[in-house]
Structures are given as C-alpha cells and as structure tokens.
Design goal:
- The protein contains no helices and six strands.
- A four-stranded antiparallel β-sheet has the order 2-3-4-5, with no helix packed on it. It has a two-stranded parallel ribbon with strand order 1-6.
- The protein has strands spanning 7-11, 16-17, 29-33, 39-43, 49-51, 54-58.
- The N and C termini lie far apart (44 Å).
- The protein has one domain (7-58).
- With 70 residues, the protein is an all-beta fold.
- The structure holds zinc ion.
Length: 70
C-alpha cells in the first residue's frame, strides 16, 4: 500500500529538477512548492506536477540546454 518515498534532486539556485518527466519524458522539470509548503515538481513541457517526499539539494545553477530562459 505504501509507495516508496519519492526523492528528487534539485539545483539549489536554478530550481532545475534532474531527470525526465514521468509523463512526457522530457527533462524540463522545475521545483514546485505547494500552498501547504509541500515540495514537488512541475514539468514545463506538459504541465504534469507531482508531490515528492524528499528533496536533495545540489549546489549550482545548471539548466537543461533547451530551457530557453529569457
Ligand atoms: Zn512532462
């Protein structure tokens, strides 16, 4: 019944979440904080969002090459 704890790795400065979206497979996930301060991610490509149990912070501001921030 209990699913294993979901963990994401996030670049502390950029908010980029490592790894592909579980829905569309693109690596364009960004850190998302919910109204109750729960942490999760949102896919900037397909809009899929999901809560996670744990966040591992990585120092740095890496972004995927095709994120195209203006
Ligand atoms: Zn997606």
């Amino acid at each position: 019944m209990a699913s294993p704890a979901k963990t994401i790795q996030v670049y502390r400065i950029s908010g980029y979440v490592i790894g592909p979206c579980e829905k569309c497979g693109k690596e364009e996930r960004a850190l998302l904080m919910f109204e109750d301060y729960g942490m999760g991610y949102e896919c900037l490509s397909c809009g899929h969002s999901e809560r996670v149990d744990r966040v591992e912070w990585i120092d740095g501001d890496k972004l995927p090459p095709d994120w195209g921030l203006a």
